Amino acid sequence: MTSQPAVQATTAVLLHLSGPLQSWGERSRFNQRDTLRAPTRSGLIGLVAAALGRRRDQPIDDLATLRFTTRIDRPGTLLRDFHTVGGGMPRRLTVATAEREHRRLDKATLVSHRYYLQDAAFTVAVTAADPSLLEACARALRTPVWPPYLGRRSCPPDAPLLIATVNDDPVAHLTGLPLARPAPRRAQAVTVEFHADAAFTGQWPDSPDVSAHHHVHTQIQDDPVSFAPDARHYRTRPVYRRHIQLPAVQCAGLGVDYVTNLATYLKHSTGEHTP
């Protein structure tokens, strides 16, 4: 009788977020729709919840245990969309007021400013204490119930979200995966920024000083308690940030070049042949 090898538990789900536009709002109100420079915790939990088929009024307590560490592969550039609604329409077709009436024609046009990230790309490690939760999230992201989007419904991804599930130190993959950016012409290394919603853990390659892992960069209000339309509620949470130097040869380019390098990495590190 031969013993079966032990099945190692999933430690992280690795995601790739890229598209022509992304928008990760934190303080969007009325006619001002902002975006942060990296995916928000509320946006990422919402992405997973949509993949699982959760309605907005369903609880997300289990997803609140997820932790996200984001690598900024390409920061993108900021785009402001000057957006108008209702201008030039007959009064009966203008936007309704809070009193359920229609606006006067001279005040019918509503102007809003909507901000997006253009051509940004991120690699995200999703971790949790419960391996079964990570595996459920990975299955949902592979075959989502509802179409995924990158912060706003008008921002679809341009590639599959799920890179792989792993059962070892996710930091090794987060620092070792190919970077979705062109290689610099002369530099031997590139500076890469990381954000996390909890203190950094694991074996980071650059810093033996673990106190740097616990330095809070800022605080933002994007930790969701409920997505219910009539009871949306978000808590404030810390943002941890750090920069490390990665070899320039890790820059895998764009499009087919990036996907080819990603597939090669996965084949050697996880045994999988495709993202």
TrEMBL record:
It comes from the Bacteria. Keywords: Antiviral defense. Pfam families: Cas_Cas5d (PF09704). InterPro entries: CRISPR-assoc_prot_Cas5 (IPR021124), CRISPR-assoc_prot_Cas5_N (IPR013422), CRISPR-assoc_prot_CasD (IPR010147). Gene3D superfamilies: 3.30.70.2660. This is Type I-E CRISPR-associated protein Cas5/CasD. It comes from Actinomadura graeca. The gene is cas5e.
